[in-house]
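Practice problem: predict the structure.
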Amino acid sequence: MSTDTAAWKRCSTCKKPIGFSETWYACSVSTCNRKRIGLFFCSVPCFDSHVPGARHRDAWAEQNQSPTRTEWEREQAEEAAALARAESREAAAAEAPARPPPRPAAPGPVPREVLVVVSKLKGYVKARSGMNTSDNVVDALSDHLRRLCDRAIAHAERDGRRTVMDRDFHGLI
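Answer:
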């Protein structure tokens, strides 16, 4: 935001003021048009001096019109109001009580599906040892994975989390 009340912005190259309702130029490259970067050029020669330093492969100057003073003041007021709303939401969230503990699992049967990719398992065993893998191994391994997951879920719940993480499996294997 410019502190100069007579100008809307200043040229990013020569620092000449760009007034309200005046023509200005922007770089066509999207990374130069982000709000935080905010590159504004008063003329095409100022834009041209920006291109070599920015190392653009292909860029051009896009002509724009600066807002009127009234439009600019309205935009600034809207941004300030949006910022105030966001800060009040953050403050309310900080004062809100902690999340309730995770809900227990829904009653009903847990699916007994295969939890491993059979082809990947068989490929690993073959590459590692040259051995084949029985189809019965998949069911036994899936049962073992279910038990490990149940213990990791219990660990995450004890920590008050709703996400099972890799650290919940440490010491279980």
